[in-house]
Amino acid sequence: MEWRISDGLTEYEQAVRTMEDRVAAIRAGEAEELVWLLQHPPLYTAGTSAKEADLLDPSRLPVFQTGRGGQYTYHGPGQRIAYVMLDLQRREMDVRSYVTLLEDWLIATLSRFNLRGERREGRVGIWIDRGHGKEDKIGAIGVRVRRWVTYHGISLNVEPDLSHYAGIVPCGIEEHGVTSLVDLGLPMEMAEVDLQLAGAWDEVFGGKGG
């Protein structure tokens, strides 16, 4: 399996083309599986379940329609994107189980920063309990599977501009907010986040063919 880290900001359309090419190559047996870590310029993406009313400020940032599941989300500098291209035929041909593993990966990564990331019934992503009934989302998940090869993946808020979330209803959820490692009092270099993502990957996916 290849583990790739891209410096700078990767344009969204370029990333999608790269993923689609790699998925086809994996499916043909011509390339290894890939975990690709990167950052995007500020933008919104609309998943297959996105509702027009949830785009509150269409002129704020570029908007890209995408084939991943889910609704509107924000990507931008300071957010670690992990695009995951795996052949589920070599693992477990169960998309729901795969999404659970991605959740486990985020939770295991956060635990390395002494944070408790949690699932919530009916809400996609990973959440932080801020106390007093307040819960904020720190990690998002959106996947697509083509002929049993996965792409798209997860995002983890390290130090993004959280004000950009005001332009959308993130993932269609109005009653809760978003947070980041720095917002939680944990300023962190991206290289350190990548190191912990890699360690947590081995912990979660190590016995799954990774």
Summarize the SSE layout with pairings.
Elements: E1 2-5, H1 12-27, E2 34-38, E3 43-46, E4 63-65, E5 72-75, E6 79-85, H2 95-111, E7 118-120, E8 123-131, E9 134-146, E10 149-157, E11 177-178, H3 190-205
Parallel strand pairs: 1-2, 3-4, 9-11
Antiparallel strand pairs: 2-6, 3-5, 6-10, 7-8, 8-9, 9-10
Folded structure, characterized:
23% of the residues lie in helices and 30% in strands. The protein has helices at residues 12-27, 95-111, 190-205; strands spanning 2-5, 34-38, 43-46, 63-65, 72-75, 79-85, 118-120, 123-131, 134-146, 149-157, 177-178. Strands 1, 2, 6, 7, 8, 9, 10 and 11 form an 8-stranded mixed beta sheet that branches. Strands 4-3-5 form a 3-stranded mixed beta sheet, with no helix packed on it. The radius of gyration is 16 Å and the shape is globular.
> Low-confidence runs (pLDDT<50, min 5 residues)?
none
Order of helices and strands: EHEEEEEHEEEEEH
Largest sheet: 8 strands, mixed
Structural class comes to: alpha/beta
